[in-house]
Write a structure and sequence with these properties.
This protein is α+β, with helices and mostly antiparallel strands. Helix content is 29%, strand content 32%. Bound molecules: guanosine-5'-diphosphate and magnesium ion (MG).
């Protein structure tokens, strides 16, 4: 396998709405460039980049993957990315290590929800964008209509550099507006191309489109603008160079026409990538300097090595695969490198170049290249591998907190350890999931970006690690508290032959502020209870409060003060006082007016403004309190506090109410009293469950 230097590398992330044909397009690119000798198909599960079992089964990309092809003596690293909302972080990570984004847009559907999100993401990172108008051979596909949709959403800087030849099923090639040539493709999906003159029927349209392109290129550059005014047009060289710099500066977004399934327009797309996309030597890698200011690291292979880990794959057989971008210098196989983030050396084995799941060894990887290494011990996603002395810092990829959690239970007993090991591995691969045991409900909670995300994670657990689990909505960790102060008495007395048992205490309970949990105070009058029995009383109250009073949930936010009692010189012991403490607690609860508390979430909903009114109404219906509204770009942010119990089904609602445009985030905020009329239900549910458990135990 060849080693490429920065000037002959192009890194592109292929992004776009799910189903726009990204994976198929990548497959066609690899095929047309001769990197593979057969056209892989999504529908047959034979593409290079959707190789995971779960991806093949669902026919959807769930995780970014890396492929490469050589074209015009240049190595194009292509990252295929997921386009579904639960998995977008991976696409965002890919944009961090690419010099350009190929935004794939379906020629029938036009701009879709995730197209917008990823477009904004790429723009925020200043990543130049190229639009591939794809699936153009389908019925109702249209350049005009899609272009209108693109202009409406992203502005008029999107400009075709090609026109399609033939409509819908007759789509057979493209007119290259820069060179004014027609390139047509064999109808057998072989990608064989023939170059010729622009067909007469398209000549006028092509000329008009070219004039428009020239004008836009001229407008993007003052010097070209002057030339354009003088001569009424641009020289070929000026057009090519002007288009390239306008693209790199984000002033123009070229649009090409493709069909991934029929391998039409693919070589021109590869040409556009090689010709327009900056090499890593040209566009520095975004970083921060020692003072925290934004800077860019130029990919020079003479510089000291630096690499950024943008993704990790947890493979139960091959072990951990660490995917990195060499930012500077040269990294060699079998070298020991320094993990700057964790301050530890890492011993590298073979460096790998990835073609989907296929790994090829390379002796070294130079600055600007993307590659991988297997079986690193300490290194994780977002780590930087570099000399200790480097002053460069790389901003970590930001992984969103999980928004939704489910309870999981192993299908076979004793699988819990296996689950926890597997989850640790999966978390390395996907930091947007989390896994923990709820200390109160004792359930294992799996949290992720949405229902699909959690289902996919569960499927991975099964396929890769052989553990099967059931998913259930999580139990709400209710709590109990008291609303009135009272005094209470607990006496435990037992006289059974020989030794008796005697413990007796008086306590006072008082409500405390929300969040104060539990306080125990001893304030014993005289010597009515010997000091050594007080911890036993506390233990009795502790145990009893953890078992709750109304519905079995822990009793919190109160103080218990033991202030009096009595003892027996022979029969008193710790156990007796523990029981007296728990009896006193029960007695207190009968007058302390206990009530149930529920967790309330801080919720933020992001939605196009049109839906804000309805969504707020819905949140009110979920017993939510709207805390405010804000606009962020074209989106409205609704902030609200909503009981957790009402949010378990929110994702489905939000998706259907906004046509998938809305997203949300929530985190635990605080506990609040459950309205009285809802408490009875919680109590009877708890009793029913307890009944079941007792039956089970018999
Ligand atoms: N007609 C047609 N179908 C396509 C084309 N490209 C992809 N598809 C189909 O569209 C579906 C989604 O394609 P895929 O590449 O998985 O989309 P992705 O989610 O963007 O990666 C699959 O059924 C493909 O076979 C194309 O150029 N023409
Ligand atoms: Mg895909």
């Amino acid at each position: 396998m060849k080693v490429y230097d920065a000037a002959s590398i192009r890194n592109v992330a292929v992004v776009g709405h799910g189903g726009s044909g990204k994976t198929q397009l990548v497959s066609a690119m690899l095929f047309a460039a001769g990197a593979v000798n057969r056209l892989g198909k999504v529908d047959e599960g034979s593409t290079v980049t959707d190789f995971d079992d779960e991806e093949i089964a669902r026919k959807h990309t769930l995780s970014s993957s890396l492929a490469h092809a050589e074209w015009q003596k240049t190595k194009i690293n292509i990252i295929d990315t997921p386009g579904f909302s639960n998995f977008l972080t991976d696409a965002q990570a890919a944009l961090r290590v690419a010099e350009a984004a190929v935004v794939v847009v379906d020629a029938v559907a036009g701009v879709e929800v995730q197209t917008e999100k990823l477009w904004e993401e790429a723009a925020a990172l200043n990543v130049p964008r190229l639009v591939a108008l794809n699936r153009l051979e389908r019925e109702r596909a249209s350049l005009e209509r899609t272009l209108e949709s693109l202009h409406r959403h992203f502005g008029r800087t999107i400009v075709p550099v090609q026109l399609p030849i033939g409509d819908e099923h007759d789509f057979s090639g493209v007119v290259d507006l820069v060179r004014m040539k027609a390139v047509t493709f064999a109808s057998d999906a072989s990608g064989r191309q023939t170059e010729g003159d622009v067909p007469a029927a398209l000549a006028d349209r092509a000329k008009a489109a070219r004039d428009q392109l020239i004008e836009m290129v001229a407008e993007a550059d003052e010097r070209l603008m002057e030339k354009f005014f003088e001569e009424g047009t641009l020289a070929q060289d000026d057009l090519v160079a002007g288009l390239r710099s306008a693209f790199i500066e984000g002033k123009l977004i070229p649009l090409v026409c493709t069909s991934g399934l029929h391998v039409i327009g693919i070589q021109p797309l590869l040409d556009a990538i090689v010709n327009y996309v900056p090499s890593p030597a040209e566009r520095g890698f975004p970083a921060l300097d020692a003072a925290g200011k934004e800077t860019a690291v130029t990919a020079s292979d003479a510089a000291p090595y630096a690499a950024f880990v943008w993704k990790t794959i947890a493979d139960p057989f091959a072990g951990r695969i660490t995917m990195m971008r060499v930012v500077a210098g040269t990294i060699k196989s079998d070298a020991t490198v320094n993990n700057l983030t964790r301050e530890t050396p890492e011993r590298f084995g073979h460096l790998l170049v990835l073609q989907g799941k296929t790994q090829t060894h390379v002796p070294e990887l130079k600055a600007g290249d993307l590659g991988a290494v297997a079986k690193l011990k300490e290194t994780r996603t977002n780590d930087v591998l570099a000399e200790k002395t480097t002053s460069v810092r790389i901003v970590p990829i930001k992984f969103p907190e999980p928004v939704l959690s489910y309870a999981i239970e192993p299908r076979s007993r004793g699988d819990e350890d296996k689950i926890s090991t597997a989850m640790q591995r999966l978390h390395e691969e996907d930091p947007t999931i989390s896994y923990a045991r709820d200390p109160q409900t004792k359930e294992l909670l799996l949290a992720g970006q949405g229902q699909l995300h959690i289902e996919v994670t569960v499927a991975k657990l099964k396929r890769r690690f052989g553990v099967e689990v059931n998913l259930k909505p999580p139990r709400i960790p209710y709590r109990e508290t008291i609303t009135a102060s009272t005094e209470a008495h607990g006496r435990h007395k037992k006289q059974t032959g020989g030794h008796g048992q005697f413990g007796d205490c008086k306590i006072k309970v008082e409500p405390l502020a929300r969040g104060a949990d539990f306080e125990f105070v001893q304030d014993i009058f005289g010597g009515s209870i010997p000091r050594q029995f007080v911890p036993a009383i506390e233990k009795g109250i502790q145990d009893a409060r953890m078992r709750g009073y109304l519905a079995g949930y822990p009793m919190v936010d109160f103080r218990a003060t033991v202030f009096d009692g009595s003892y027996h010189p022979v029969d008193s012991n710790e156990l007796s006082f523990k029981l007296a403490g728990s009896l006193a607690f029960k007695d207190a609860m009968s007058r302390a007016r206990p009530t149930i508390l529920e967790p309330v979430m801080q919720v933020e909903v992001y939605t196009p403004g049109d839906f804000a009114g309805d969504l707020m109404g819905d949140l009110n219906g979920r017993r939510g309190r709207i805390a405010g509204m804000d606009t962020r770009g074209t989106m409205t942010v609704i902030k609200a506090q909503v009981p957790m119990a009402e949010m378990l089904t929110y994702e489905q609602h939000l998706t259907s109410a906004t046509g998938g445009r809305g997203t949300y985030h929530m985190e635990y905020s605080h506990y609040e009293e459950v309205p009285q009329h809802l408490q009875a239900k919680i109590i009877s549910a708890a009793k029913a469950e307890k009944g079941v458990e007792e039956v089970e135990e018999v």
